[in-house]
Amino acid sequence: MGGVHIKYLLHCPRQLWLYSRGYRPEQNNSSVAFGEALDATTYTRRRDIDLGEAKIDWVTTGAVVHETKSSRTPSPQHEAQVRHYCLLLARLGVNIARGVVHYPLVRRTTEVAWDAFARAEAEKTEQAAKDVIAADQPAPRLPRSRCRGCSYRDYCWGDL
Fold first, then answer.
1. How many domains, in total, are found in the chain?
2. CA distance 110 to 151
3. For residue 147, what is the DSSP state?
4. How many of the other CB atoms lie within 10 Å of CB of 138?
């Protein structure tokens, strides 16, 4: 399970359910393209760490997990994604120190703690994502006002 699964769970469980079944409209979304371009042109000396389905932006000496976001504001989704990466590395035997979320557009960072509480949160979030993915039906749609900018919006609301 990758970080995008965690991000989608916290944004919209329906989005996670659809994504897990191969529906990928974000490929045509300009916001996603902007985020990918920002990732490709920021912190270029760093290399991604590919764990299969999860791809960590980079890890520095002392086992600090780093994630870059195109958003201008911190989000609980971003921190949950970093905690998930910390959990995956911890399961591989890496002694994680903490995480950092980078917001290059506003030149800001957010620290993400990695301790027993953070690990328990990461495990709980991971289980919630597994439960959504295993469901026979998608979660109900969120209120339309929460779907602004979502690449899945047409799928969820296009029938109106």
1. 1
2. 26
3. G
4. 19
**Scanning the structure block, which residue is given the tokens 């916290």?**
10
The predicted pLDDT at position 25 comes to 75
Burial of 49-59, coded b for 16+ CB within 10 Å and e otherwise, reads beeeebebbbb
Which strands sit side by side in the sheet containing 98-103, from one edge to the other? 58-60, 64-68, 98-103, 108-113
Q: How many helices (H) and strands (E) in the chain?
A: 6, 6
What is the distance of C-alpha 149 from the center of its chain?
A: 16
Kindly report, residue by residue over 116-127, the tens digit of the pLDDT.
999 999 999 999
Residue 36 banded pLDDT, cuts 50, 70, 90 = low
Bridge-partner residues for 109, per DSSP?
102
How long a stretch of residues is the chain?
A: 160
The whole domain housing 138 covers 3-157
Contact 39, 57 (CB under 8 A): yes
| Contacts for 37-42: CB closer than 8 Å, 24+ residues apart | 38/68, 38/70, 38/104, 38/105, 39/68, 39/70, 42/68, 42/102, 42/104
Q: Which amino acid is at 61?
A: T
CATH number of 104's domain = 3.90.320.10
**In this structure, what token pair is assigned to residue 121?**
């949160």
